[in-house]
Design brief:
It is built from nine helices and eight strands. 40% of the residues lie in helices and 14% in strands. With 303 residues, it is α/β, with parallel strands linked by helices. It is globular, with a radius of gyration of 20 Å. An eight-stranded mixed beta sheet has the order 1-2-8-7-3-6-4-5, with helices on both faces. The two termini are 33 Å apart.
Length: 303
């Protein structure tokens, strides 16, 4: 598939004027006040837009039944795109987008709760989520309705089940997305990848494609606003994001590589190096499956 670069722009028509307004405000004190009022109005509109999109997704998820991989990908892309748009994100795609007719294991660095929406806006994959999300009001229904897989982190037997589900889905033509760091970062570093979920590509023979996510301020510098780290809450990230006229999200799809003849550890290492290279970061040292005093399959508890 040919390389593609595109932008999903928020609906707000005066976003491109925000930088110019700031310059005028530095001279005109009255403009500074009006600019603050506009930001309050912008935040309010975006909060309502997010709530509206979640409601629409919840209603659609409740009506979901068995769907084909193509239909689920189309639906995920449509609703994820609207969600990203409502949050005021500009998505810039680089590299070769996944072929919708060939299933692939998408592996990405993890910065924010909105990462799955960003990737789904252009790929339509089914993502792995922590098991607690399945019971969350509204969000759990949405995740279930859009084909998410739920995994009990720290439970190696449940990890074996999750790997089997991913392998089965890949074999049936669904693309799957995972965040093998198993946690979020500020985006200024990349952590070692846990190899557990790469086993699904080994078992199914699916291809693996690295995806690099980078959030940028309007001036091109690194943006921390969406980072879902430490004691930051979801509302904290929304508050920070909505204070900005827009945030650019670069989503770069790396070269696809075949999983044939490779073990999960080697796949994890290659994916980590590829994403680190796209982000101009140092790759993280590989995580090993299990120590010498552990039994086979106990490596899964490290996920």
């Amino acid at each position: 598939m040919a390389a593609l670069t595109g932008i999903i722009r928020p609906r707000t028509s005066n976003i491109c004027m925000s930088d110019e307004s700031s310059k005028i405000g530095a001279v005109n004190n009255g403009t500074a006040g009006r600019r603050g009022d506009r930001r309050v109005g912008q935040s309010t509109r975006r909060y309502f837009a997010i709530c509206y999109r979640l409601t629409r997704m919840w209603l659609r998820a409740r009506a979901s039944g068995d769907v084909t991989p193509f239909e689920l990908a189309r639906r995920s892309t449509k609703y994820a795109g609207k969600m990203v748009e409502s949050a005021g994100l500009h998505v810039v795609c680089k590299g070769d987008l996944p072929d919708p007719e060939r299933p692939v294991l998408l592996v990405s660095n993890h910065v924010s709760w909105i990462d799955p929406y960003v990737v789904n806006a252009v790929s339509g994959a089914r993502f792995v989520a922590k098991s607690e999300i399945a019971n969350w009001p509204i969000i759990g229904t949405i995740a279930n309705g859009f084909g998410s897989f739920f995994h009990d982190r720290g439970n190696f037997r449940d990890a074996r089940r999750t790997v089997s589900e991913l392998s089965s889905a890949l074999g049936r033509g669904f693309s799957v997305g995972v965040f093998p760091e198993a946690t979020t970062t500020s985006g200024a570093e990349i952590l070692p990848f846990y190899p557990a979920m790469f086993e699904s590509a080994v078992e199914s023979g699916a291809r693996v494609q690295p995806v690099a996510i980078r959030y940028l301020e309007s001036d091109g510098s690194h943006c921390l606003a969406p980072a879902y780290i430490e004691n930051v809450t979801l509302l904290d990230t929304l508050r920070e994001m909505f204070q900005r006229p827009y945030i650019t999200v670069e989503v770069e799809f790396g070269p696809v590589f075949d999983s044939s003849g490779l073990c999960r550890r080697e796949l994890a290492r290659r994916a980590n190096e590829s994403i680190a290279n796209m982000l101009s970061l140092a790759p993280a040292p590989a995580r090993y499956g299990f120590a010498s005093n552990e039994e086979p399959w106990t490596w899964l508890r490290h996920f």
